[in-house]
């Protein structure tokens, strides 16, 4: 199963990806997580990406495409994967298409978590508070001002990925304003529908 989760920051992609990992025993490939790990390890990519990430901007296509290219060729991704946070631009979507075609692999579905953006800032404030109260580190980019930058970057650069996959016929829209369990159930019914089509 090869899936892409798309939606603005705070839409619940990470939460749903974690559930899909358990259900399908395929890895979640989050470019955000990989970049944060690179920043923490102070690798050359991490050093380059840090300032852009802290400001809520987008890291270059070249860097993230390189990261994904390496990652999907690893052993645990051979039976499938869930892409979370990638592709974020048309150039990244095209690069992914090329990688899949070159490997003779096919994409099963692109799930868009559609949310009311006016409610997202409240959601992100809650995420920061929850992390704080459970003693976990609060992401620097979950600051409301940086979050607004990330939302702008999504609307400016990434929202175009949705019509791209609508055209390819891969897109399914999920109501991301439902409860976490309801969103999971909606995703499940889309994926079960895919099985039936096969
Ligand atoms: P995320 O955890 O997906 O919200 O990503 C956190 C940050 O990492 C983003 O705000 C970007 O700065 C960077 N990032 C993650 N994925 C990508 C991507 N596919 N393209 C460009 N930048 C990315």
Task: Provide the descriptors you would attach to this structure in a database record.
alpha/beta, Rossmann fold, 59% helix, 5-stranded parallel sheet, single chain, binds adenosine monophosphate, globular, 198 residues, 12% strand
- Chain-averaged pLDDT: 91
Assign the CATH architecture: 3-Layer(aba) Sandwich
Bound compounds, each kind once, are:
adenosine monophosphate
| SS-derived structural category | alpha/beta
Low-confidence stretches: none
Supply the CATH superfamily name: P-loop containing nucleotide triphosphate hydrolases
Percent of residues in β-strands: 5-15%
- Strand order, largest beta sheet: 2-3-1-4-5
Quickly count the helices: 9
* Helical coverage, percent range: 55-70%
Shape designation: globular
Distance, first to last CA: 12 Å
Number of domains: 1
CATH topology: Rossmann fold
The largest sheet is:
5 strands, parallel
User: Quick one: how many beta strands?
Assistant: 5
Explain what the structure shows:
By secondary structure, the protein is α/β, with parallel strands linked by helices. It has a single domain (2-187), classed as Rossmann fold (3-Layer(aba) Sandwich). 59% of the residues lie in helices and 12% in strands. Strands 2-3-1-4-5 form a five-stranded parallel sheet, with helices on both faces. It is globular, with a radius of gyration of 16 Å. Bound molecules: adenosine monophosphate. Adenosine monophosphate is lined by residues 9, 31-32, 35, 52-53, 56-59, 64, 85-86, 88, 92, 141, 150.
């Amino acid at each position: 199963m090869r899936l892409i989760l798309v939606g603005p920051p705070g839409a619940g992609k990470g939460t749903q990806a974690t559930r899909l990992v358990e259900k399908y025993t395929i890895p979640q490939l989050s470019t955000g997580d990989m970049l944060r790990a690179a920043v923490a390890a102070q690798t050359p990519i991490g050093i380059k990406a840090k300032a852009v990430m802290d400001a809520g901007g987008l890291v270059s296509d070249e860097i993230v495409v390189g990261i994904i290219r390496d990652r999907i060729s690893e052993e645990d991704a051979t039976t499938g994967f869930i892409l979370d946070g990638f592709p974020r631009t048309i150039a990244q979507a095209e690069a992914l298409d090329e990688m899949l075609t070159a490997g003779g692999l096919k994409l099963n579905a692109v799930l868009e978590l559609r949310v009311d953006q006016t409610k997202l800032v409240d959601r992100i404030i809650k995420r920061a508070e929850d992390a704080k109260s459970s003693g976990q580190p609060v992401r620097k980019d979950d600051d409301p001002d940086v979050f607004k930058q990330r939302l702008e970057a999504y609307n400016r650069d990434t929202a175009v990925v949705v019509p791209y996959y609508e055209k390819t016929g891969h897109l399914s829209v999920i109501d991301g304003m439902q409860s976490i369990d309801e969103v999971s159930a909606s995703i499940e019914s889309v994926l079960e529908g895919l099985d039936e089509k096969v």
